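Renewal narrative, Specific Aim 1. Our central claim is that a sequence can be written position by position from structural information alone. The example that follows is taken directly from our test logs and has not been curated for this report. It begins with the structure tokens describing the chain, in the order in which they were read.
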């Protein structure tokens, strides 16, 4: 059972809230680095400017994960009682969360937030091992990566597509294409015709044509590839969790280092103004902001 912030009070979260600090330096639209987060994995900014961060807290410890909201320097907890929340995506007024072996949904337009199970572990054709990233197209279809045995063999990953009616289909796995090892970051186009995915094990960025079922390599050397975003001008950014780096990939597929020095650069996001990159540093417990101007 899942509980909202009004139904459950966790002493560790309370203490963490006391330690949470937002720097006084403010960037455009209220964006500023944040420290004191509880193992932040993914981030997304809503149209109203609010930033949502998934906090795993103790990895593998069910029930201590949560979603934090950052609103112009003020922080609060949206929902608690999650397991290991990772990838986030907003579709309409709903926030979707990849939480270990299930996908949750939170209605953001409700006075009291609570998480419901959108997809249970038993809804998948194969019991999920490590649900990781989420993406969505303009039709409301959801794309989900299961990174498989990401911490062990680095294999066994799967990519799924789910319709708004919860009809689930398998898009890619190692039996369809041996290059699929531990797919992590996903990014689909608006029409749902092309899907970008980066593999955590190989560090290769691929594009998958959902119409022709063809998988092509875009770039390599991306280490432990994690998050993917794309600016309006076509420039891609990919985070490297293993090496703590963020890379830029231009339209000629040239890879350039943007920033390094993170302990573990996780699932990145673009700001609503398209000019800032939001980078969760999982092990450091921080959210960094990179100005892309």
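The sequence written for that structure reads:
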């Amino acid at each position: 059972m899942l509980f909202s912030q009004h139904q459950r009070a966790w002493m560790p979260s309370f203490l963490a809230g006391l330690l949470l600090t937002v720097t006084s330096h403010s960037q455009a639209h209220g964006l500023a680095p944040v420290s004191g987060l509880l193992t932040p994995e993914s981030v997304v900014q809503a149209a109203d400017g609010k930033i949502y961060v998934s906090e795993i807290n103790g990895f593998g410890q069910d029930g201590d994960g949560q979603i934090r909201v950052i609103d112009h320097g003020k922080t609060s907890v949206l929902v608690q009682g999650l397991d290991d929340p990772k990838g986030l995506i907003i579709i309409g007024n709903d926030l979707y969360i990849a939480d270990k072996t299930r996908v949750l949904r939170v209605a953001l337009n409700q006075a009291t937030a609570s998480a419901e199970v959108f997809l249970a572990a038993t809804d998948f054709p194969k019991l999920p091992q490590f649900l990781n990233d989420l993406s969505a197209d303009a039709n409301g279809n959801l794309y989900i990566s299961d990174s498989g045995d990401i911490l062990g063999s680095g294999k066994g990953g799967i990519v799924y597509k789910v319709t708004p009616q919860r009809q689930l289909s398998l898009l890619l796995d190692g039996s369809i294409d041996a290059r699929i090892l531990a797919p992590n970051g996903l990014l689909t186009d608006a029409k749902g015709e092309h899907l970008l995915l980066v593999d955590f094990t190989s560090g290769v960025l691929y594009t998958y044509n959902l119409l022709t079922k063809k998988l092509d390599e875009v770039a390599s050397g991306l280490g432990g590839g994690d998050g993917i975003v794309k600016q309006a001008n076509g420039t891609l950014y990919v985070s490297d969790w293993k090496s703590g780096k963020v890379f830029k990939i231009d339209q000629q597929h040239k890879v350039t280092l943007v920033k390094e020095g993170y302990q573990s650069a996780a699932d990145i996001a673009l700001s609503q103004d398209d000019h800032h990159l939001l980078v969760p540093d999982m092990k450091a417990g921080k959210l960094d902001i990179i100005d892309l101007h």
